[in-house]
Amino acid sequence: SSHYPFQVRLLIANSGSGDEAVAGQVARQIVQLAAQDKTVVGVMGWPFSESTVHAFKILEAAHIPIVSETASTDDLTGKSSYFFRLVPPNFQQGQANAQYVIQTLHAKRVALFVDHNNAYSSSFADDFKQSYLSEVSGNGTIVAEEPYTVGPKGQAQLSTLLQRALNANPDVIYFSGYASDLAILLDALPSFGPGVSVPIVGGEGLYELGGYNQSSRAHLGQLHFLAYAYPDEWEIAGLVGQKPLFFQEYSDAFNPSGQTPPGVYGLTRAGNDVVLAYDATRTLLTASTSVGQNVTGEQLQQALKQIKDARPLQGVSGRIAFGPDGNPINKPLLLLSVDAQARFHEEALLSGCLLVARCG
Prior knowledge:
alpha/beta; three-stranded parallel beta sheet
């Protein structure tokens, strides 16, 4: 690449899906490889909180920094000087969602779905609950808390839990989890009567159009969720002239004909995870470039620390700057909703800055 004074080799370390603890085994394999091959100096990922929790200490011990694109659990804040992330921790996201639920939806009765054994779900739910109850100051309550299990093992119980939650007559369902599980819940929503129009609020884990089957899409119009990036956010912010070339280059590379096959999302328009993964990789490469040739993991970690509030990096997803705890400072946090045709829309920019030059 003309941007970097060295060749880049990208290795795919696949820890699969289903058992997040496998990430620990894969992290040990990366450490073994790095001991033999000194050009292996950093990791982009993991996208999921639970996987990252199993992996980060193993990599830290070998002085291999991680830049995660989307792992957001509070359990990772300040736990390792070798961990960096591009997204605000769940604590900030829970606050943002609580304010939205109170100020925009005016909800006084909330039903909460949470998996207490999943790092992302439990952290995200706790942060929302604390923020909501403190900010609503006695004028609202959690009317039902439904403990479920993330993944296929727990999906059979969701219909029963939903009925129990709806019996509590909530103004809002707060779903702390992922799209594939929410799809089962949406399937179970009645086609008329209670529940058909209850707003459903959640985090970035719900931003996955491919996670919703055809039958669950009838209720997608009830969804409101957080996102860290959205392909139209530059235009919506009035920054068409500053929109990075990445978005056009992505479309040209993956869908040169411009004719998107029906039901396929992400060929013409780069989704949240693609944009964040690109920025995380660029952050690692930019830090490497500042060191020069023969980069070590320790040097890469120090260079990543220099991408700070006073010296931010312009990312495709907005401003990139790390605090001393590895969390981003002034990173955009968006709220998206879905229309009846299952199209995403940006409802609001809740916080953060797209442009480095126009922040504060």
